[in-house]
Each structure stands twice: as structure tokens, then as C-alpha cells.
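Fold this complex.
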Amino acid sequence: MKEMDDDELQRLIENSKELPAGRTLNDGEKAYHALLEVLKSEPENGLPYNFAAKVTRHIQAEQKHKSEWKYNLATAAILLCLVVSLCGVMAVFGAISLATLLKYKWLIILFPVIFIGIQYFDQVLVKTRIFRSKF
Amino acid sequence: MFNEKEVVTRILNGDMRAFELLVKQYEKLVFYVTFRLVKEQQSAEDICQEVFIKIYNSLVRFNFQSKLSTWIARIAYLTAINYTRKYYREKSSEYPDDLENYHFTNDTPEHLLTKKDTANYVELLILQLPEKYRTVLTLYHLNEFSGPEIEQITGMPEGTVKNYLFRARKLLKEKLEVYLKNELL
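Structure:
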């Protein structure tokens, strides 16, 4: 009896069709059957049982981190505006001269920069470490 | 019953429990694709996390033109492929045109003796196959994607997918045939 070729065999076994009448499985066909059974079965390796919760917590922490960062930037901008406005008002009413203001301009700019710097190091170094130790 | 439209809508409205549900639904799919490509448990776990973060961030762009599982599998496939390109730098020689002449590296008699059963043996052989063959086998048999879906996921033409599938199964069958004969002796 004519042997079936691999192409024919794969199609036959995959579609779970019956073998032609009077045909019994040879070694190759048995191997195909065993192989397709194994290919369908799930491997032993897998993700930890709490993987979904872990990913969700990670995303929530990232979201919190982003919103905190936005809040800090907004606070720094408001702080800078306030200081500039205050200096402007003081200059207009003659409490302080424009020359003095220009002399201390870097000090005025330094306040919001220091604020942002502190927040940055707090988030990057401290909070990230706390987050990593938790998860 | 998992209703993907409802779940996606809930996630886009900020429901993190719905996202957790989505992760639980597709974690096996993502893991199988990544594990078969990177072949390391810890790396596969890290990539899975990265994949789901990408999914969360890109979900707003998902327009239901394909199945959610196909879209997720594509993200998983591309992320795992990028990882292997970056860290393993697999040489082009890993993809022989003539798979019939492909040699498994550790198919020694000692190794054959240590294999617990057929499933473990096949898994070991799959992990030694070239990347594209591993991917196609996994997506087709384990994740039960069709030829056109695998084309969408991997970008390989459907004919190539079928060809890889046929050649990989033929090669595995030949190895398994010898293994089963030895086991019966």
C-alpha cells in the first residue's frame, strides 16, 4: 500500500480525519499523532499567580509618579510667577530698585529650581527604592 | 464570559480591576510567545510586564479592527523579538534555509536518557529550533491562531507561515520517531 507523504499526513491528523479503510498507523504517523498532542499541551513554565496584580500595581505607581511630577512642575511655575510678580510690585512701588532685582535674579530663579530638584531626587531615589522593595 | 469591548471601555474609563481582568485573560498567550522566543523564565516575566504596560498605554489606539488577542500577540511578538535582537544578537546563521539539515545541539545519547517524557523532549527540541519556527509553532498550536492571524501578528506571508509550520513539524516528527523507537527498546 502506498505510504502517505508528510504533507498529506499532517493535514489528515490535524483535521482529525479518519484514516482510509484498512490502514493502520506506521511509526511516522504515530510520531505525528504524539507530536500534535504535545504541541497542543501547555508548557510547565508559567507566570507567577499574582502577576496580574503586580502589573496593575506597577501601572498605578507609574501613574501616581507622573501626576506627582505634573503637580510639582505646576507648583514650581506658580512659585516662580509669584516671586517675579512680588519683585515686580516691589520695583513698581519703589521698595526695591530694578538694579538690585537684576543683581539677585539668579537667586530668585534658584528657588523653584531647588524645589523641583528636591522633588526629583525624592521621586527618583527615595520613592523608586521604596516601590522596588515593595514589589 | 470575557467581553473584550466592555473590558476595553472600562479600562479606558480608568477601571484598573478591568485591566487586571485583561491581564489574567491574556497572560498565558503573552507568556508562551515571549518564553518560546527568549527561552529564559525571568526575562520572559520581565518582557510580559513590559508588554502589558505597552498594552495599557496603547489601548486608546486599539480600534477593534482585529481581534484583541491578535493585537496583544503582535505587541508581545515585537517586544520579545526586539529583546532577543538587543541582548542575544542571534546570528543570521540561526535561520537556515534548509531546515532538513538542521542539527540540534545537545541531542546526545546521555541527554536522551535524562529526558523525562515525550512532552519534555519535544519542548527541548522546540527551544532549539530557529526563532521563526518556534514562533509559528507556538502561535498556531498553543495559542490557536489561524494562518491569516499569524500573518497579522508576525508580518510573515501566510504561505511562509504554512511552510515553516510544515517543515518544523516534519523535523520534530523525525526526531520524535527516533526517540519513541529508542524508548520502546
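The CA atoms of residues 125 and 172 of chain B lie 7 Å apart.
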